Amino acid sequence: MSQQVDCPKCGNKELKKGIIRAALSVVHMFPENNPRSKSSPISSIYCKSCGYILESYIDHPERLED
Length: 66
Ligand SMILES: [Zn+2]
Description:
Blueprint: E1 15-19, E2 21-22, E3 25-26, E4 28-29, E5 40-47, E6 53-58
Antiparallel strand pairs: 1-5, 2-3, 4-5, 5-6
The structure holds zinc ion.
């Protein structure tokens, strides 16, 4: 991501990338119809100031197989 965006909630410019985790393990996305498919971790961009999550995406969408 190259474009600089501000937080829509508080206007802070310090946005960070995070990985959504459940306790000690990374939460993965699986295809709805194929839970045995390969999966991908989920990353998010969040505001360091107010904590608002601007966007979430999976790191490797090409891995998921319907
Ligand atoms: Zn914010």
